[in-house]
Amino acid sequence: MLETKPLLIFKTIVEVGSFTRAGVRLGLSQPAISQHIRALEREVGAPLLVRLGKSARPTPHGEILLHYARHVLGKIEEVERVLAEAADGRTGVLRIGAGGAACQHLLPGVLREFRSRFPKVDLHVRSGYTQLTLGRVLEGDLDVGLVTLPLRAPQVRVTEVGRDELVVIVPPQHPWAARRRVPAGELAGKPLVLYERQSQATDLIMRALLEQGVFPRITMEIDQMDAVKEMVRLGLGLAVVPEWAVRREVTAGTLRAVSLGKAGLWRAWGLACLEQLLPSPALRAFVRLCTEHLPRALAA
Q1: What does the alpha-carbon distance between residue 249 and residue 171 come to, in Å, rounded to a whole number?
Q2: pTM for this one?
Q3: Which residue in 199, 216, 257, 217 sits closest to 233, CA to CA?
Q4: pLDDT digits (tens, 9 = 90+) for 244-298
Q5: CATH level 3 topology of 4-87
Q6: φ, ψ for residue 57 (rounded to 5)?
Q7: Taking burial as the number of CB atoms within 10 A of a residue's CB, which of 34, 51, 164, 216 is the most buried?
Q8: CATH top-level class for 93-300?
Q9: Is residue 130 within 8 Å of 200, Cβ to Cβ?
């Protein structure tokens, strides 16, 4: 089996034109150079170099070997370069999970910054509510998930990244539009547009309402945040959604956001990774960017 070191020596001799100059370039003695070439010729079963005084040139068999030696050594150099880049986070794949609304409103800024720093890292993003994302992390299908807290998964390492408020949204002409907050009890009997029934946000909202004796009248269940906002804008119901998800509409005046209860309805967010997973440089950089950017995005 051909080894790479003799191939490198052979290629270097051809490139520099002599055994002596090849030894100087590679830091090897001339006897060592000659020994490797003799062994390579025995392996190939044919002479590879012709010496003309102090110079050397390839034989016909040597020309054939030279072509493949360059190809093989070039591929090895490419592999070494790619592995070195992967080791310091410059290349590789980062698989990220988050809810649909978070993918739309929270992640783009972080991903843009990450891509500017690590242009050769492929980003794979999958949407899904917290429990689905957590399941994918546990199964090894994702490297990291942006999820709402708390989590019940001891195998997972969590890095908290901030808190957000869930607010009631109404159209501008609604009687609540001028209010800053509304008691949970006033939602009794009101048509509610529900976003992602299986999400932890829905569990939090339902628990907050039921604790106040409110049994919500759910008229729609929709898994697209834009559709939820449009239904509310048209006066077809109310919804409780993250404040950051309606920031643009509130600024434009097409929707109003009202806090729920005296203290508002708040929740925490975190990044979930497998505890046993040794984080790659790319993953560490992504977590660092999230801790820098998301607290402002969540609660601004």
Answers
A1: 10
A2: 0.71
A3: 257
A4: 999 999 999 999 999 999 999 999 999 999 987 777 888 999 999 999 999 999 9
A5: Arc Repressor Mutant, subunit A (1.10.10)
A6: -140, 155
A7: 164
A8: alpha beta
A9: yes
